[in-house]
Amino acid sequence: VGLNRDPGFVPSPLVGKPAPDFDLPRLDAPDQRLRKADLLGDVSLVNVWGTWCVGCRQEHPFLNEIARSGEIRIYGLNWKDDSASAREWLAR
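User: That's the sequence. What structure does it adopt?
Assistant: Structure tokens below.
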């Protein structure tokens, strides 16, 4: 059955829906917060990642390259990880 499916299609009930409200501590500065309002008004890329995720490790250099270009703001949402591991990964 899987051979007849489009590998580029990733179904999601969230496509076309507004982002939920959130208020999260920053990994690099836990005393600062990131909120939905911080993303409004500009195009931003929100990337969900984890140090345990093989695909995340592969895309990390490319996302850093995009971020350095300054053309789009990138925010990472660290998922199912502990803060120490995530900070260590980002320091690389």
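The chain has a mean pLDDT of 87.
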